Predict the structure of Threonine synthase.
Amino acid sequence: MSESRPYRYASHLACPRCEADYALDSLRQLCACGSPLLVRYDLTRLAATWRPEQLAERPWSLWRYHELLPLAQPEAIVSLGEVVTPLVELPRLGDDMRLPRLVMKDEGLLPTGSFKARGAAVGISRARELGVTHLAMPTNGNAGAAWALYAARAGIQATIAMPEDAPYITRQECSLAGAHLSLVDGLISDAGRQVAGFVAATGVFDASTLKEPYRIEGKKTMGLELAEQLGWQLPDVILYPTGGGVGLIGIYKALQELQAIGWVKGPLPRLVAVQAKGYAPIVRAWQEGARESRFWDQSRTRAFGINVPKALGDFLVLEALYATDGRAIAVSEAAIDWEQRRAAQLEGTFVCPEGAAVLAAARELSTLGEIPADARVVALNTGAGIKYPDDRDLGVPRLAADEALPIPESTTRRPS
Amino acid sequence: MSESRPYRYASHLACPRCEADYALDSLRQLCACGSPLLVRYDLTRLAATWRPEQLAERPWSLWRYHELLPLAQPEAIVSLGEVVTPLVELPRLGDDMRLPRLVMKDEGLLPTGSFKARGAAVGISRARELGVTHLAMPTNGNAGAAWALYAARAGIQATIAMPEDAPYITRQECSLAGAHLSLVDGLISDAGRQVAGFVAATGVFDASTLKEPYRIEGKKTMGLELAEQLGWQLPDVILYPTGGGVGLIGIYKALQELQAIGWVKGPLPRLVAVQAKGYAPIVRAWQEGARESRFWDQSRTRAFGINVPKALGDFLVLEALYATDGRAIAVSEAAIDWEQRRAAQLEGTFVCPEGAAVLAAARELSTLGEIPADARVVALNTGAGIKYPDDRDLGVPRLAADEALPIPESTTRRPS
């Protein structure tokens, strides 16, 4: 299939707060007003020339949606093989929580084992295209790991600051990739201040969440894939674990763009932002009906990716919740642990703690009657459980090399 | 596209040693002669009715090759979303080892983070189709993890014995999935004896490597995918880390079947079995020109998946090496560590130690002149590096929350 249409339909950068516009092909961070910038597309022109059937012969990677991505040309792509992640049916777990139409998009199958690969793939590709040679960012682990590895592939230097409590393996990923990594005795907000100081001192590109406009475009592909995998029919509810919130904003942006080009119809799904009770600034803001969140400085959660005391894009997250009749909800640590085990036992899927939080939230909203049993519900598992080893005693018997395996009570012995 | 052709073309089970045949749809373990059994297909009939173009509209998962898989019907599939794993170009690492056409098939993107998901997906699907309700197996970690999780999804009980030195996260996978797991103070060969005793005492299905004929059919899909991804052109060399050897035998079987139905032409690629110097029974056998390996009981390697002192299918591995003008090669622990870091720094890919062993072997064979610079070389990375956290001190600086990030020497400070 030869395509003589443009590779890209991105037109400019726009501020969602003050509505200022910026040219696309210059290196930008925040708007002059301090708000994140978003990429805008010529959706009218795109609607006139792009059809779902044109996707049929394209590779199953996030780059199949290049018309809705910011790269000027395919040669700029920096890829580690970003597969379209599977939409896994969860019939037994769904029945167990009276949501028989529950499905899970499993982001653990991306390179680096988390959805952060999407932001890194598009963010790094675009950074390289714009001439970046060194970037800096704070991280709760997975984003830093993904950006460090994609940066290495692109030949870009990365300076990364990470709380020392972040999942251990992510520091190994950064270190192996050759990033300049520092561990911080503090929160991601502390690491963020350190990165801001570093950027001020050096002029290095600031790749912090939403301080550049392209990471969100990568995250957006979750929404594009989801819509295509559901045959361009929107589900009723999408649940997402929310730390910095870029994934949720990205999905919302994707669905709005698909609506604008006429590929999906009807009301957008209700978007549910899931946090942990130990860290729930978005939930508190939503409960107050606020437009922004306030800094949250107590406590913590095992779902480390959610540990963001105050997200730069909080107002965009809240706007998406209000606009879709969605909501925010916080779940307990006990519910996260229980649901992670339940999912493994009933469905064989080993989700990350953030993914378990989402499943626990679905269960709670079902119990509360806020999601009806016939709803088509999509849960996002943002990463592979294998990135989060847990030191708790698993109660596994230890045998000498010549001992016999214990026979479970339910198993019959052969007559001897 | 409606397809009225059969879903499956498997015809019977055959012994590669004594040539006995067995009916397909009964539960079988080894041949009466003690050899593994292999699934045979009606390749003549398949050649007459199957064309590569018929794959075009099928989902990008290993099930797209169902004509060459043993399931009687699609309803039997137990899936966690087995994506077609990417073939990642490694131009900088390739140049670095004078193999500019080096590519890597990255099996770390499968569910459970390793190629073992292929064997488990097909093995468990087929086990369920044949009525298995409980299975037992020894494992070096990843296979047990994959089988435990797929078994949970299928509602099958799993009893698993694992050396206590196996990667930590794999015991967590087994435990979360609800498997009956035991840790053994010994090698996989000890665990294998324990499983044999358990099977003798209970009559539980023995899912040990090659003691049932279907795991290898799952592994085979690596070869099928590889051939399709290369446009049905065979590469010159395929390197594979070899413990039990099923992956390598599976790739060999896949390529032979594709040859038989006329989808690939010309000589098969040279197959290279990669082991670690601390554990190299196949290499020793190959050096001796032997048809089988001898038990290897000294030493160990960080590439834990290779720790197999004597593989049941060793004669099939060696046959594949001899038949393709391939070879076996052992690499050092230092080379594994160095190559793992090199791959991350040059290409942004975090391979597992077994995958690093394969890349180290490619480098060594290039240096020895055994692989020419213009060869199309495929390296298999069998799992995600994130499954193997490493306690070595990474030398990462630790900062207080109010300290400044160190500025790398190569980075210019802004004039203040």
Observations:
- Chain B has three domains: 10-76, 87-113+217-387, 116-206.
- The longest strand of chain B covers residues 157-163.
- The mean pLDDT of chain B is 95.
